[in-house]
Design brief:
about 140 residues; alpha+beta; FAS1 domain; seven-stranded mixed β-sheet; 6 helices; globular
């Protein structure tokens, strides 16, 4: 199964799946890859400021939504054992900061709560917060 199917089957990424569809990114993430996705849970999306998700899901904000979502994706299959501290360039051209904190790993200010969910075309690391690039709402 590819990254999208793996995420949908996991059951905790329905909002992410809806957003990927709204942004027109499903086919891209079903592609050959490989990709590493820092995937926010449905609960993580509920922590966004009120109205942000609804605004991003509007058709006129498709480019902004795409930017937010590609900020969660890194080219290549990067397992937790391959993660290095420091900046990592995302598909949107920005960078996230990987930080090892105690026994855990942070991506910007999100905690990795489950690592290394493998798919045919990459890997998913579950995070507890939606990452917003600097230019996002």
């Amino acid at each position: 199964m590819d990254i999208v199917d793996t995420a949908v089957q996991a059951g905790q990424f329905q909002t992410l799946a809806t957003a990927l569809q709204a942004a027109g990114l499903v086919d891209a993430l079903k592609g050959e890859g490989p990709f590493t996705v820092f995937a926010p849970t449905d609960e993580a999306f509920t922590r966004l400021p009120q109205g942000v998700l609804d605004d991003l899901l509007k058709p006129e904000n498709k480019a902004a939504l795409s930017g937010v979502l590609t900020y969660h994706v890194v080219s290549g299959k990067v397992l937790s054992t391959d993660l290095k501290e420091g900046n990592v360039i995302t598909l949107d051209g920005g960078a996230v900061i990987v930080d090892f904190e105690g026994q855990g790993v942070k991506i910007n200010d999100a905690n990795v709560v489950q690592a290394d969910i493998t798919a045919d075309n990459g890997v998913i690391h579950v995070i507890d917060k939606v990452l917003l690039p600097a230019e996002a709402p």
